[in-house]
Structure formats: structure tokens, C-alpha cells
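Task 17 of the worksheet. Students: predict the tertiary structure of the chain below and write it out as C-alpha cells. Keep your answer in the requested format; marks are given for formatting as well as content.
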Amino acid sequence: MITGRSGNTVLLLKSCILKVILTKYISYSPILSRTMEKNWLLIKEQRAYDIDELKALIAYQYHPKAVEILDQGSIRIEKSEKTGRIKHVFINEKLVASIRAPDGYLLFSIEGAKLFLSLVPPLTMRVVIAPEIATFIAKGRSVFSKHVLQVDKEIRPGEEIFVVTPEDSLVAIGRAVLSGWEMGKMEKGVAVKIRKGLRK
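Model answer:
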């Protein structure tokens, strides 16, 4: 089930309530019935469009297989009341992703990152770090190149990536400062700026 805080959702609720009242107490007209059914169809079409938009973003930014995240339970989409654009995505009432307003970039939450790791095989969009520094990175410290054990060579600077242990357990989510190839070669400098750590 997909819901939101947009005008379409309010319209849907009003239509449902009105239909129940009219059905129970009076014989409503076919014209009114057709209007409410049309509203239903319009809202369903918008929901389908929202899901397609999310799938396109996830596939483009992360990996095509990651779109399966949206199949992991009941989806609720929260939209901006001002712009009508998608703000947050919930699965089984847990926040899994947000969309950054200025550029439309989709950012996974810790819950969403865990789903990604469970569905997309290593080393996709991952930076593997030495176990002894995992605690510090989980608190929000930056990852330096010298701490990188393995990395997805396809990572590009500026991309959102997942910092993991050698066992593929999530440590943090961050923004790549270097390319994956550079992280694997350089011995100095910041490789990943952490946005959200497990303990941050």
C-alpha cells in the first residue's frame, strides 16, 4: 500500500468517506459515482508513476538489482506539501530513503542501506575497511585511503557509497571523495566522507 501527504491522498479519503455515506443513506447519482471512480484511477496512476520514478533513481544511482528494495514490504511515500515532490520513502513504516530537494538525489537511510547490502552482491557500491577502525568510522569519522582493504573500482567521486567490514556488515554511509580506482591505489588522503554511521 502506498500513501502520501499530498492533495491526492486527501481527495481519496474524502471520496471514500462520501461514497460510504451516500451508499448508506441515499441512492447517489451515477454522475457522482463516475466522478469518484475517476478520482480513484487518477490517484492509482500517480502512485504507479511515483514507484517508477523511485525505481529509475535507485537503478541509475546505485544498481538495477537494488530496485528490489521496493518489494520488501508495504510502501508509504511522503511528499512535500508545497511542491508535491517525493521527500521520504518508508517500507513497513521504517524510513529507507529520502530525496534531497536541491538536486533530487536519493539517499538511503541505515535501514535502506542494510536492505541494499542484503540484495546487491559485493563489492557493488562498497568500500571495505579494516576491522580495527570500524568503531571510529561508525561514529562518523572519515575513511582514509590507507584503511581501504577492498573497493568497487566503478565508484565515482561524489557518489553515495556503503562502508562495510570484510564480512559485508554495514558500518556507515558516506560520499566518495575519490574514485574507487584511486582508493585502491593511494595511501594518503580522505577516501570517504561519512554522512551517517551506525553509532552517529
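Marker's comment: The longest strand covers residues 190-197. Residues 11 and 44 are 12 Å apart (CA to CA).
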